[in-house]
Design a protein that fits this description.
Layout (H helix, E strand, L loop, with lengths): L9 H31 L4 E6 L2 E6 L7 H18 L3 H24 L5 E4 L4 E4 L1 H24 L5 E2 L4 H11 L2 H8 L7 H22 L5 E2 L1
Antiparallel strand pairs: 1-2, 3-4, 5-6
């Protein structure tokens, strides 16, 4: 039954949603190379900073295992944060974001050249060190503020059960897989088909995020 004396903290929910949605782009950094490794095999080479280490490989070799771990844990954090918030999900998210901020900052001062993001298929290149540190620190603060307002004040928290609508959107994301396989395996490396494959993967991740966001009527604990 809804608690009308102490309703859920709107401020807490606002900061929680901000923190979770700011965390979402970090998951795509693992999701995209994971999909490309699975689709293209050893033809695709990648490098990605992971906290205080630098990971990389070609296809399923090297540090590939870190990609599904990052993507899986990141998606789980998004699910918990958006649909089943708890003290654990708040503080886990805040700790992960704080580690991201510290690692970005250290890497920026110790080896700034290693933080140049290159997207050959899309023709983009930029340094993400300081921006990544600031962005992650702000998101971590939002997670802490969300926990402060939503739990420290002893307010009930909303829970959003998974519904048929969420499943339909998730299936739409999975339906993109055949198109990804075709695009990433036809034409030259870093050509037009590769770029379309990247856009398809970004759209796929957008649908997964939409599945986590969609249809959130409150059930309060």
């Amino acid at each position: 039954m809804e608690d009308r004396v102490n309703p859920p903290s709107v401020t807490g929910q606002f900061f929680r949603n901000l923190a979770v949605l700011m965390f979402a782009p970090s998951v795509i950094l693992a999701w995209l190379p994971m999909i490309r490794c699975l689709m293209e095999g050893a033809d695709y080479q990648w490098e990605l900073p992971l906290f205080f280490w630098r990971t990389g490989g070609a296809g399923l070799s090297g540090d590939f295992w870190t990609l599904p771990v990052q993507a899986g844990l990141g998606t789980l954090l998004l699910y918990l944060g958006l649909r089943h918030p708890s003290r654990f999900s708040y503080w886990f998210l805040a700790i992960v974001l704080a580690l991201y901020a510290v690692s970005w900052l250290l890497a920026y001062f110790m080896s700034p050249g290693d933080l140049v993001f290159r997207g050959d298929s899309l023709g983009v290149e930029f340094n993400i060190g300081l921006a990544g540190a600031f962005y992650s620190a702000v998101a971590a603060m939002f997670a802490i503020l969300g926990a402060r307002f939503e739990f420290a004040l002893d307010r009930p928290r909303p829970v959003h059960p998974w519904t048929r609508a969420n499943t339909i959107v998730l299936l739409m994301a999975l339906a993109i897989v055949p198109a990804q396989f075709i695009l990433f395996n036809r034409g030259p490396q870093h050509g037009a088909n590769d770029a379309l494959g990247v856009y398809a993967t970004l759209a796929q991740w957008g649908l997964i995020l939409l599945a986590l966001l969609a249809n959130r009527p409150h059930r309060r604990l």
